[in-house]
Write a structure and sequence with these properties.
25% strand; 29% helix; binds flavin-adenine dinucleotide; 5-stranded parallel β-sheet; alpha/beta; 15 helices; 560 residues
Length: 560
């Protein structure tokens, strides 16, 4: 058998190595447009920021080592420019010589990845404006910073790569502005979790401009100018464009392969395209999201690597291994915060008309009495009918990675919030609490579904009416340090003695710092005959971050 693979990084290199492990006698050729194979895309921002100092560490494999170990014919700096599915032939272009030649195949794997979006704005090709996809881009950026007096960086797009680059520019001592067209960073997140991360970014001295659209660039003697839709002009020495990527379907489309509704290469459960001899993996393909049931593209290294392995099994062993799809589990370091997500955000569930309840809680990363515990904010979305977990997002410092992986696996397995409540973890004070933050998220959701807890959300507070009474049940020192306007203060431990201050005919809205004391107060009032009592989900912590960011957004909108 003769196998050809196009693209030699995450998905392609995985597929090639697995094919060899399954078939020692096969002829395997892997084509790669770039000079490097199987390198660490995910490490590129950290190499630019000098966190990874040794460039060689980026290369998981070299073409020579890959060839020696796996006996695979690696052809770097060679583009596949055409696929002829009918005759099972690819046409290749060797960059060093200009030679164009063909190779036939029995089975073909496409793993061409995604290409950064580069809108046709005036001046977009000016010197000093970069996108980041591969080692070549990385070298350009690194050399540009070395060779020019770069002091000010503008990052356009506050997605995962944009934020990583903002942090790494900052790490190099540059003044950094991040611009984002939307009203929040990181699209897969809902506003309350994004708001916590935004506050953290601002606390580092990075300027974050939301609701901001760039209309063009000019290169002048004293550097680049970035023009905004409102007419404002900003100066920059370097610009990083990270406004998104799109699946590289060029070859597939020209070959007549089916493209799906999300504009990725359509594949079946075996990762086989509309041509039975061609398989495809990675950022270029689309498949069903198990939560929404809709087609989606997951631009993530984990799924690409795993798909490469599954697709190799199916190619060599026959279609034996089904791929069950990705739920977009992702994590990003935002300075010394970690932000992570799995499944679907509430805003996306709403857009898909999927009924759900959202609940936010804040817990310590480990036992509060053991040194070093930090706050972790978890938001989950779950079905009101059966408690199925649909999405989870976390912002925190320590232990976010562990918790999101747990939540991800529960979402992937269509498990419920009742399972979270019973989830058994390894506990000792340095690592967790006897009730882990994941259990706590489950307990809160369980209380909501069993009607023991009624919640309301931060954005409802601006719409409170005269029949609403807002009670802050924190201690007086916390109240005087900052509270929600209009609230009265009745600390939790005094509430039984001060019932006369709470009119029973009012709609009682309670809040505390994180949600727990508010829940306890609500239980007391409810059992003492107060009919309408609810507790602020995420408490003062969530409200404060959301309001700060909301007001920021409001000022920007009015300013522009
Ligand atoms: P790629 O790994 O991009 O490989 C595609 C290769 O195909 C490219 O090298 C390209 O040159 C080659 N190619 C394309 N067309 C042709 C052709 N016609 N002929 C020959 N060769 C061709 N994901 C995470 O999960 N976590 C992270 O932290 C993370 N960080 C990232 C940071 C950066 C800077 C970038 C760019 C990506 C990051 N990703 C991250 C995304 C992750 O790297 C991708 O999801 C993953 O690499 C996709 O694998 P792939 O095989 O589909 O494509």
């Amino acid at each position: 058998m003769k196998y050809i693979i196009i693209g030699a990084v995450a998905g392609g290199a995985s597929a090639a190595a697995r094919i060899r492990r399954l078939d020692e006698h096969a002829e395997i050729i892997i084509f790669e447009r770039g000079a490097y194979i199987s390198y660490a895309n995910c490490g590129l921002p950290y190499y630019i920021g000098d966190v990874i100092k040794d460039r060689n560490k980026l290369f998981v494999q070299t073409a020579a080592a890959f060839n020696k170990r796996f006996n695979i014919d690696v052809r770097t700096m060679t583009d596949v420019i055409q696929i002829d599915p009918k005759n099972r032939i690819v046409t290749a272009f060797k960059q060093s010589t200009g030679e164009v030649y063909t190779e036939n195949y029995d089975k073909l794997v496409l793993s061409p990845g995604a290409e950064p979006v580069r809108p046709p704005l005036p001046g977009i090709n000016s010197e000093g404006i970069f996108t980041l996809r591969n080692v070549r881009d990385t070298d350009y950026i690194k050399n540009y910073i070395r060779q020019h007096n770069v002091k000010k960086a503008v990052v356009i797009g506050a997605g995962f790569i944009g934020l990583e680059m903002a942090e790494n520019f900052h790490q190099l001592g540059l003044q950094v502005i991040v611009m984002e067209m939307s009203n929040q960073i990181l699209t897969p997140l809902d506003f309350p979790i994004a708001a916590l991360a935004q506050q953290h970014i601002r606390s580092k001295g990075v300027q974050l401009l939301l609701n901001t659209t760039v209309t063009g660039f000019t290169n002048e003697d004293d550097g680049l100018t970035v023009t905004l839709k409102n007419g404002e002009i900003l100066k920059a020495d370097i610009v990083l464009l990270s406004i998104g990527v799109r699946p590289d379907t060029n070859l597939a489309e020209k070959a007549g392969l089916k493209i799906g509704s999300a504009r990725g290469i359509a594949v079946n459960e075996f990762l086989q395209t509309s041509d039975s001899d061609i398989y495809a993996v990675g950022d270029a393909i689309e498949f069903k999201n198990s939560v929404s049931g809709k087609s989606m593209i997951s631009y993530l290294a984990g799924p690409a690597n795993k798909q490469g392995r599954i697709c190799a099994d199916n190619i060599v062993l026959g279609n034996t291994h089904s791929y069950h799809g990705s739920i977009n589990t992702a994590i990003v370091k935002v300075f010394d915060m970690t932000v992570a997500t799995a499944g679907m955000a509430s805003k996306h569930l709403t857009a898909e008309n999927i009924p759900h309840i959202v609940s936010t809680n804040h817990a310590g990363s480990h036992a509060s009495y053991f040194p070093g515990s930090t706050r972790m904010s978890i938001q989950i979305a779950f079905s009101p009918d059966n408690g199925r977990l649909l999405g989870a997002q976390i912002a925190g410092h320590e232990g976010v990675d562990k918790r999101i992986d747990i939540l991800s696996s529960y979402i992937q397995q269509s498990r419920t919030i009742y399972d979270l409540a019973e989830f058994e973890h390894a506990y000792a004070p340095p690592y967790s609490s006897a009730k882990d933050p994941v259990n706590m998220a489950g307990f809160v959701a369980e209380n909501i579904l069993s009607d023991k807890l009624k919640i309301f959300y931060w954005d409802e507070i601006t719409r409170l009416k005269t029949y609403d009474l807002l009670i802050d049940v924190r201690n007086p020192d916390e109240f005087s340090a900052g509270c929600i306007p209009g609230a009265i203060n009745i600390p939790l431990d005094e509430i039984r003695d001060r019932l006369q201050e709470i009119p029973a005919d009012k709609n009682i809205r309670i809040y505390c710092e994180a949600g727990l004391r508010g829940y306890l107060a609500q239980r007391i009032l409810k059992q003492l005959g107060f009919d309408s009592v609810s507790n602020l989900s995420g408490g003062y912590i969530s409200w404060k971050a959301c309001m700060a960011e909301y007001e920021n957004e409001y000022h920007l909108i009015t300013r522009f």
